Amino acid sequence: MTNIADDESTEAIIVASCKQTRFHISDTDKSTEIDIAGLSLGIAPSGAAGKAKKGKGKTASAQEKELLVNAELRLKSGIHYALLGRNGSGKSTILRALADRIIPGLPPSLRVAILQQTSTDAENLSPAKDGPSTSAPEDTTVLQHVIEGDQSRTALIQDLQALAGTDSDREDVIKQVRRYRQMRYNRLNRDLLEVQNNAYRRSGARGSQARKDLIAFEKEVAEATEKLAEEIADPDSPAIQDEFLTASSLLVDLEAELETMPLPALETRARSILTALGFTEATLAKSIPTLSGGWRMRAALARALLQKADLLILDEPTNFLDLRAIIWLQSHLIALRDSQAGTTVLLVSHDREFVDSVAEEVILVKEQSLEYFRGNLSAYEEDFRSRVLNLTRMQEAQGKETARLEKSIRETIKVGKKTGDDNKLRMAKSRQKRLEDGAGMQVNEKGQRFKLSDRMGWFDSKHAAIEIPKDEQGVAISLPPAPDLRFPGPLISLEDVSYRYAPTSPLVLQNITLSLHFGDRIGIVGLNGGGKTTLLNLLTESLRPNKGVVTRHPRLKLGYYSQHAVEDLQTLGRADAGLTALRLLAEDSAGELAEQEMRGLLGSFGLQGRTASDVPIAKLSGGQLVRLALVRILWSRPNLLILDEVTTHLDYRTVIALGEALIDYNGAVVLVTHDRYLVRRVVEGEVFTDDGDDEGGRGEEEEDNRRRVVYSLSGGKMKVLEKGMEGFVRVMEKRVAKMGI
Question: Which of 375, 401, 425 is the last residue of a domain?
Fold first, then answer.
C-alpha cells in the first residue's frame, strides 16, 4: 500500500507505504487501535514524487530522504506515548503523516486532533489539514477560534445554517427544498476531499474499491449540482413533496443533535482551557491575526485539547508556556490518561520532566526504525544503561573465555600433531564446536535459552551475536572559553532600578538590585508577563531605567540569545534565499575569523560540512537554527551569556548536551527558562545519578568559585527563591490546584 501526499504549493511531500494484509481494518471497523507493519516513510521533492506516482509500484526516487524503513507503528487505545529522537530524525513528519492520514491502513473512523509546530519546518511542508490551525479570519476572536475547533459541531452548525430559514419560511415548500438542496450540495463537497484522498492513498483491492467509491460519489456530487440549478415548477409534485418531508425531518434531527452539544457548556470548557494557558478576558476577545506567534500557538493548543479525539497529537506543546501552564497541561493530560475517555496521546517535547510525568511508553525514532519501551523516559534511560552494562560484561566474559578456549585448542592440536594422538585432535575438534556453539547471546530477548527458531539468518554460532546498543546521542556542543577580565569587579550591576514604558503606565520593574560576577550561575523564573524580558533588555542596554543605576565592566563582552532568535534567522533566510550559516557568520565576524575557524566553531555545534556552507538557513530545522544563533553570539567569546528560552525547538538530548556545555563554561550565565531540568542542572548544579535521581551534589571547585542563585520575578519585583526551582514548582502546583480547572 502506498500513499503520496502532494501539494503543488510546497517544495516537498511525504511518501508513505506499508504492508497490506487480509487483516487490515475494514472501512466499517470502529477500532481506534493502530497497528501497521512494514511502514516506510520519506520526504521527496514534489517533482520526484510525481515520477514515483507514475511508476509501477515505485514510491520513492533516488532523491527521497528516508525517515522510516520497514518499521512497525503500534499505538494502543488510551496509552500516552512520548516520541523521541534527534532533531531531523523525522518526528514531526511522522506526526504530520498521521494527522493527514497519509499513512495507509489507519482506522477510517479515527478522530485526530493535532498541535503541530509549523514555523520551523525544515522540509517546507504545508500545515496539517486536520486538527487546529493557527490561521483564522481577521474577525475571529480567540474564543470563537477555539470553539470552532470542535469539528463535528462546526459541521452540524454549517448544515443547520444552510437548511434553517425563518419559522414562516419552513412552510414554504419551494424555499425549504432549495435550502435542502444547498445543504446537501455543501455537505457532499465538504466530504469529497476525504473520498478523493482515500482513492489516491490506497492500493490493491482496497484501492480499487476506493476508486469505485470515488466515481460513485462524484456522480452524486454532479447530481446534487444539477438539482441545485434546477427550477422547481410544481411544488405539489410527489418528488418535491418527498424532498420537503426529508428536509423537515432532517432539520428536526439536526436541531435535536445540536441540543446535545450546548454552546454554553462548550464555551465554559474553552474558557477554562484558555484561562489555564494564560489568556485573560481581554485577550479572549482579541482577533487571532493580532496575536503574536506564541499566543497563536497557545490558542491552537487549546483548540486541540477541546476536541473529542481518539488520537491527540502534541508537537512541542510546552513551547511558549510558562511553568504554571506547563504544570496545568501536565495535570490535564494525566487526568485524561486516568479517565475512561480512551484518548491516545502521542507527544514530542524537549521538556524531560513533562515527558516523564505524562508518558506511559516511549517510542524511539532510531536508525530509520521505531523502538518501543513500556515505561517513561527515565525508566527507558535506566533500562538502556542496564542493558549496555550487562551486555558489555557478557561480551567481556565471553571474550576471556573465547581466548582461553582458543589457546587450549591451539595447544591441544599442537600436542596431538606432534605425538600423533588422535584423541587430542578429537578433543580439540570438540572444543572448537563448543566454542562456536557458545558464542553470542546465551538467552533470547524473553530471557529463555536460544532455540534454532530464534536464529535470524545463518550464523557460525547457534546464538545471536552480542551487540552493544548505541545511544542516540544529541549533538555534541562545545562553548569557547571566555577571556579573563584582567581586573576584578561585577560584569553588570543594577542598583535600585525601576522601569515603566510610559509616564502614566504602571511600573514593569520595581527597585531591582542585581549584581553579576564572572562565573555566576543565575536563574530567573516567573510567569509570562512578569517583566523578565524587560529586565533582560535593561541588562543588554536595549532599554535604560527610569530610576536607578546600571553599571558595566569596561571589558564586558555580552552574548544575548533572544527568545526571538530563531524567528530573526528565518526572516533573514526569507530575505536572502542563498544565505548559508557559513556566509552569515563571515558577515557577523567581518573578517576576524578565518574560514577554518568558522567551520570549526559551526562544527562544534553540529553544523558540519555542507550543512554549514551549502544549505540555506531557510532550509535549516528549528534545532539547527538555535545552534546557529548560539554560534553568532559565541564567536566573539563573551564572558557573560544571557539565554532567554534557549530550549525551544531543541530535542531533549540536545538540551542535555547544552546543559553540560554550560556547566563547563567558565564565564557567567543568566538563564531565563521554564525548563525545570535545565535550571536544576546548570544553575543549581544538581548531579543526576545513573538511576535518574538527583543528589543535589556539586563539584568542590564549582562550590568554591560559583555563585548559584535562582530568582523569581513577579509583578515587577524580584526575590531570591530560598528553596530554589523545586520550591517554585511547588508554588505553581498549588496555584494550579486552586484554579480548580
Answer: 375
